[in-house]
Amino acid sequence: MALRMAGTPTPARHRRRTRPAVLATTAAALSALVVGVFAWPGTHRADAAPATFVHPGVTVSAAQLDFVRTKVNAGAQPWKAAFDQMMASPYASLSRTPKPRATVECGPVSNPNYGCTDEREDAIAAYTDALAWYLTRDARYAQKSIALMDAWSGTITSHTNSNAPLQTGWAGSSWPKAAEIIKYTYTGGWPQSGRFGTMLRNVYLPEIINGSNSNGNWELSMMEAAVGISVFLDDKTSYDKAMARFRTRAAAYVYLSTDGALPKTVPSQNLNTKEKIVSYWQGQSTFVTGLTQETCRDFTHSGYGISAISHIAETSRIQGQDLYGTDIGERLRQALGFQSKYELGTAPPSWLCNGTIKRGLGPVTEVGFNALHNRRGVAMANTQTLTERNRPAGSNNLFVAWETLTSADNPN
């Protein structure tokens, strides 16, 4: 039986003659298409928010943090060096003064930049302080994290200009990581936690939940923020919507040979010809496993997308749905390996980006490497070499921070 596209009605004469079992099967398939979910082997339904959310549960769990705390207290490496790096950074400064704005305006390449850097870095600082609190049990760091979150939740009302969705995604990825640790581990109290949640729901979530048709790293970062915010808000509906959109975008961001002659696409982008797809993939017309939609733009933007995929997969795992054994995990593994190979210095062949690549992947490999290599036992030689060479991985000053500390060889 041919499957009709979502939204296309079945003629009445066909409905009368279709058996109930077939109708049920067709309805399920149509439902999957409506939410943008591809039926990959080994995946679960995307509408699978946990019955009860795990807290803290955005990118890092309590068990992971306890493992790190034990290693840092024992002076073990690479965790102690990573901890020292974090504590020496400006983000951990107890004298930091937050710089909230009612309206954050971010234009192309942050021009204009009215509060963009301040917001992102205050959010990273809040997360840094939350980690510092948990690992040291020094309440001053919890109080500083709270002060940063309270300053913004009492001030910001909107994001504007062309980069507003991406800016909201970047800052919105760090805020819930901080908030989860503070709300669920600090017993000193956070009176304005409800106001902070209202900020995430009213200022951040509407800007990101419906995604973006720009380059794929935008929507992946936006969905990372939406997933994290949904966990903090215990919002199953938003979580399901963000996860469904993430699956579609991740499948369209990293190519696997099993996808066919051309990469998968996001339906709303109408990339319905080879010419459109090649243009969207930065002029790359030869598609090989591990290539990302932005490899030929530069590795930095590819790193943003890869990092967001790993963060969402990690949050999903903590919440009870392990995506690493699905096509998402395979795309992540292959993207890490492909980019790592060339980041390490291998000269690109002429068919790849016309023989010219722009390196600069960033500190984005630890989460995926730990999940796939250490937990699942998958060989990842190039990714391992790059990850170990770059330790301790710091921050990209956008939405990635301290992942050698939180993820290196972490079995939990």
Structure, described:
- The protein has about 400 residues and is mainly alpha-helical.
- The chain is built from 16 helices and five strands.
- The strands form two sheets. Strands 4-3-5 form a three-stranded mixed beta sheet, covered by helices on one side. A two-stranded antiparallel sheet has the order 1-2.
- A hairpin with a 1-residue loop joins strand 1 (about 55-60) and strand 2 (about 60).
- Residues about 1-45 have low confidence and may be disordered.
- Gross morphology is globular
The run of helices and strands is HHEEHHEEHHEHHHHHHHHHH
* Largest sheet, spatial ordering of strands: 4-3-5
Q: Provide the residue-averaged pLDDT.
A: 91
List the helices and strands and how they pair.
Elements: H1 12-17, H2 20-34, E1 57-58, E2 60-61, H3 62-73, H4 79-88, E3 103-106, E4 113-114, H5 116-136, H6 139-153, E5 158-160, H7 164-185, H8 193-208, H9 216-233, H10 236-253, H11 274-280, H12 299-318, H13 327-343, H14 366-375, H15 381-389, H16 403-407
Parallel strand pairs: 3-5
Antiparallel strand pairs: 1-2, 3-4
